Amino acid sequence: MKASLSKKLSLGFFLAVIVSIILASFISNYTVNKEFNKYLVDEHKSKINNVIKIAEDIYNNQGSFSKANEAELQRYAIMQDLYIEIKDLNSNTIYSSGNSHLYHKAMMGHMMNNVSENNTGEYIENKYPLAINNKNIGSITIGYFGSSYLSTASVTFINTLNRSFLFSAFIALIFGLVISIVISREISNPLVKITEASNKMRSGNLDVRALVNSNTKEIDELSNSINYLAETLKNQEMLRKRLTSDIAHELRTPLTTLKTHVEAFMDGIWKPTPERFEDFYEEIDRLSKMVDNLRNLSKLEESNLNLNKSTFNISSELEKIIDTFIPLYIKENYQLISDISPEIDTSMDKDKFKQIMHNLLTNSYKYLKPNGKVEVILKKEKQDVMIKVIDNGIGIPEKDLPYVFERFYRSDLSRNKNTGGSGIGLTITKTFVEAHGGKIYVESVLNKGSTFTIEFPNVISS
């Protein structure tokens, strides 16, 4: 059974919080108890040393133990939960505090649940020498339960500390649960919206957009990518529909002409003459060229283009190409001028380069206005070759600029001009340019002209 991303994230965060709290509590509790017990043991040793010092000081001041001295030791023994016994050098008992107060207090502790049976420990007695000015005067025996240093205050402190750990862990769990839910929803909710948008796109609704406002970089980029995909698919669908319409338009004209001529022959309106057959041939030739262009374009898109590269002087080669077009331009009273930087060598497929320039110059020629002009510029920029073809023709509408390199795409203006183009010349040009690792783009202003710019890399220094 598949779980939602939100549940997985919440569970994952919550488990991480639980494990972190358990580890932190265990380590903290272990460290604190260890250090606190060490502190209590040190305090107990200090207490024992104080008893010995008090006994030595009293004897030193008095020269012997009196009843007043015994009362002072008795109070200290009861207060510190100790059994104190002092003997002289002959092992005669000089003072004994008795141990009834120890057992009484331990019994009260059991009854009040202040100290558990395990914490009471065994009764222990330690014997220490008494000395005045480095002279041994007897011995002192100090007895206590093994955990007598665990006073009521100490036990209270430890219990309070443990309760604090438990309470802190409980609060941390609640806080971790809330944070895990918030973070998981912040991550999963945008993804749910993106998924919903993607499903609508899959159903054919290309107008849908993933409206996600997220501070997470990856989610924001994913949302933008989905929206870009939707926009691209929408444009491609528009191009597909237009492609169908354009192909129908391109095929309808010659077929209609042929059908009309055949009907005229069948009805006896026209007689078969060489001129009529020449019209037939032109229309059939037009259809044949269109089919050939489609086939060539299909081959270019289906497989990697094989380039036959060679090193040549692109400056002189471009001048030759321009020279072949000058008579065509002069015939229509057009101008074809050039500004070519000399002696630029490059490594390219010469035939493909010729076809690129032929397509661009032919395209500019078709859409010139009376007294039109085309300028070809070639120059070297760092290690790139830049070629510009600038004309003052009818221009391209701004809405059509993104699609001029799409197959069969022709703006309404170019179609109305009835140039007879197939609409794939610029598509082939772009394919050849990109096969050389270059770039091609167009700038145009309606009724003022267009500028096609090509950038080829890998200039060879002459």
From TrEMBL:
It is an enzyme of class 2 (transferase). Keywords: Kinase, Membrane, Phosphoprotein, Transferase, Transmembrane, Transmembrane helix, Two-component regulatory system. Its EC number is 2.7.13.3. Residues 185-238 form the HAMP domain. It comes from the Bacteria. The keyword Transmembrane applies. The keyword Nucleus does not apply. Residues 246-460 form the Histidine kinase domain. It catalyses: ATP + protein L-histidine = ADP + protein N-phospho-L-histidine. SMART domains: HAMP, HATPase_c, HisKA. One of its GO terms (molecular function) is kinase activity. It is found in: Membrane. PROSITE patterns: HAMP, HIS_KIN. Pfam families: HAMP, HATPase_c, HisKA. The chain crosses the membrane at residues 165-183. This is histidine kinase. It comes from Clostridium simiarum. The lineage of its organism: Bacteria, Bacillati, Bacillota, Clostridia, Eubacteriales.
